[in-house]
Design a protein that fits this description.
The protein contains four helices and 18 strands. With 344 residues, it is of the alpha+beta class.
Length: 344
Amino acid sequence: MAPRNEGKGRPARKPVFVVPCWPRLALLTVVVLLAGCAGRSTDSVPQQQTVVAQLDSSTPMMSMLSSMAPAFVLRESQEPHNRIGRVQALGTKENETLVVDPEHPVVYAEARPFATEKGSYTNLVYRIHFPELPYSLIPFHLSAGKHVGLLVILTLDAEQRVLLATMAQTCGCYAVSVPTQSLPAALYPDDWPQAPLAVYGERLPAVLPSLQATDVLQVVIREDVHRIMDLQIVAKSSLPPETVLEAEMRELTALKRLPLADGSQTSWYYSDWPLAGHVKGAIKPWESLLLSLISLDFFVGMDKEYGDAKESGNPFYTSLKPWNRSASDMNDFAGYLRFNGWKL
């Protein structure tokens, strides 16, 4: 609202606020401290890393998994929480601690066949984890917590052509599937858009080019929140060598056989009710507080195992609607495709 005029035709005099000396000094101190944080040295770690899996020729399947693995572009990688890490178990069976070591990147992978009424396919499953998603009020990080992860799944046909790239956080959140041009458009969901996909605040391409043997799926991950913010098909030779960091590739099942100091083993996942099938230490307090009622799941947002849910009874559901829990379970990938309208 415009200021009210006082008197005849004269604009109102704006009030003058005098800031006391001490608050001004405190404000100046905060500015200086923030400037100091912004200007810290990042010489040891580049601002952006491109993590690629090392070639593993121990078995034909591991060779294929490593040769077709995505390249993960990590922004603001000078921050440890923005780096892919190795899952480790410290201590003993009676006193264990699970951590993600950002100094040693690891991509966990496996191949998983599935079938639909129209054919047989193979999913190449890639799983990565970060130490944490940091707590923040401005901007607000709803999914703040430890041990967060990301899945990228490439769906291959019998000729080993990549038809579909499916991405989801390891809590089941933000799941999306993007076709390549190798998938006939008749198998897309009805009314598939031509414009970029809007995925909960991010924009991803609606269709990707076909992948050739010399190409790689480049997955750009937003800093702090670890959301996928871009997908591209690029030539492997075009990856900038100054930012490329090779990651070890391990079998996905290695997450259930983590060695401890006393010679025993433990799992990345809880085995007992009510947390069976969830990642240890991955409780997300904000999501539990704000989303548990509408999802009817107190542990909503908590990262979980992806695989056969029969042992844990913990579905990898991708819809918050309780009545869609079974239909949207990505453990049953054929059912997940039907739920989302894909016609493979």
